[in-house]
Amino acid sequence: MRKVLLRFVFDNAWQWQSAGNELLVGVGWLILLWQLIVIVVALTMYLQTKNAKESVMSALFWQIIPAALGFLLIAQPPIGLVKSGLPVFGYGFMMFLGFGSASWLASRRIRSIGQPPEVIWDMMMWALIPGLIGARLYYLLEYGSQVYGRAPTFRDKLIATFALWDGGIVFYGSVAGGIIGILIFCRRRGINPIAMFDVLAPSLFVGEGFGRIGCFLYGCCFGKACQLPWAVKFPPDSLTFEKLVEWRIINPDADTTIPLHPTQLYSSGMAFLLAGVLAWFYRRKPFDGSVMCLAWILYPINRYILETLRGDVAPDKVGLKNAQVLSVALVVTGIAAMYYFSTHRKLTGKTGVGGSAGNS
User: Fold this and answer.
1) C-alpha distances out from residue 316 to 144, 148, 301, 313, 325, Å
2) Partners of 18 in the beta sheet?
3) Three-class SS of residue 218?
4) What separation in angstroms does the CA of 31 have from each of 6, 11, 63, 92, 352?
5) 341, 289 contact by CB (below 8 A)
6) Environment class of residue 353 by beta-carbon count within 10 Å: exposed (0-12), middle (13-18) or buried (19+)?
7) CB 178 within 8 A of CB 134
8) H-helix or E-strand containing 295?
9) Could you give phi then psi for residue 14, rounded to 5 degrees?
10) Does residue 328 fall inside a structural domain?
11) Is 102 exposed, middle or buried (0-12, 13-18, 19+ CB in 10 A)?
12) The domain containing residue 253 runs over which residues?
């Protein structure tokens, strides 16, 4: 469990050293890696477009970041970033990896509805920003009293509102926000949104799988106590440890937490499995909307079961957690949606353009 996977430091360009629970890496390695990526991307652009000028200009534009890092490395200005180094947070890195993987897989699948891969990359920003807003709003609505209770001043409360680097996003909220953004994008481009949601459904859970690994690294969404062989213990610098100390389950001077269910890894494994099932079903889907509806039904069932093992949220007065109540509602509406699309839509081949896919 590592909140910070590694930290790029400026005092030694080629440092590579483990210190405590962090890996210290000289910023020279980052500059070198960045340059290699820029070269590969520029060559790929040239091979695709045969436009040497555009490829070179794009490569020069992306030299801004390594140039800035090089300046900080050489000048060593007395600023916090240079003194502390540039951290790579495990949670944020996994979110980035999940978003990139999900987008790439969707770009390969979107040809089946008659759209070029570039559409996915254009659309993903419409999904990402509303998705993050929705995920954060859902979290603040449910846990806002805890978040703001730890922020004494207005400035602290303002920072706490946007502190995504500390975790605190909810999957259901991200889906709701992302759907709004995608609907707007599809309307602007004249793309059938139902066909698009079928394309995106498997990728959604690839992103969820990586995101839950980020939760594990950070220590949020932890499980209940257990004595199973695969139970995990979190270190003192994790959110799990802080919560269990706050709830007086462990002592502040303990070396680790008590053994807990690795619910984050359960969630991650199930998300990747669901992504595989949906990708398999996509190639055999009987009608537009069927892949979306299958995800709509299966994920809430999985989430309802996993919530019984999570120890970070207490049940409400009726004995169910909010996520479980919502899961039940989603299963019911998902079944209804599957029936609706099965009777009102049929698969007609490339249904990615226009507002309808064969209304009957």
Assistant:
1) 16, 21, 19, 9, 10
2) 23
3) helix
4) 15, 14, 10, 20, 41
5) yes
6) middle
7) yes
8) helix 290-307
9) -115, 30
10) no
11) buried
12) 225-260
Among 63, 84, 105, give the residue marking a domain's end.
84
Q: How many CA atoms lie within 13 A of 56 on its CB side?
A: 3
Instruction: Classify 27 as helix, strand or coil.
Output: helix
Q: How far apart are the two ends of the chain, measured CA to CA in Å?
A: 53
Structure tokens at 166: 């500390």
Q: How many domains are contained in the chain?
A: 2
Residue ending a domain, among 58, 84, 110, is 84
List the pLDDT tens digit at each of the 360 positions of the chain.
677 888 999 989 999 988 877 889 999 999 999 999 888 888 887 787 777 887 788 788 888 889 999 999 999 888 887 888 888 888 888 988 998 899 899 999 999 998 888 888 888 888 888 888 888 888 888 777 776 767 677 777 777 777 665 666 777 788 888 899 999 999 998 999 999 999 999 999 999 999 999 999 988 889 999 999 999 999 888 889 988 998 889 999 999 999 999 999 999 999 999 999 999 999 999 999 999 999 999 999 999 999 999 988 766 555 678 889 889 999 999 999 999 999 876 544 444 444 333 333
Does 71 map to a domain? Answer: yes
DSSP letters along 304-330, please?
HHHHTTB-SS---TTS--HHHHHHHHH
Residue 16's DSSP bridge partners are 25
Position 61 in a domain: yes
Q: Is residue 165 part of a domain?
A: no
Q: Cα–Cα distance between 256 and 179 in angstroms, integer?
A: 40
Q: Which two tokens stand for residue 5?
A: 């996977």
CA distance 232 to 234: 7
DSSP for 177-211 reads: HHHHHHHHHHHHHTB-HHHHHHHHHHHHHHHHHHH
What's the pTM value of the predicted model, to 2 decimals? 0.79
Closest CA relative to residue 115, chosen from 185, 196, 48: 196
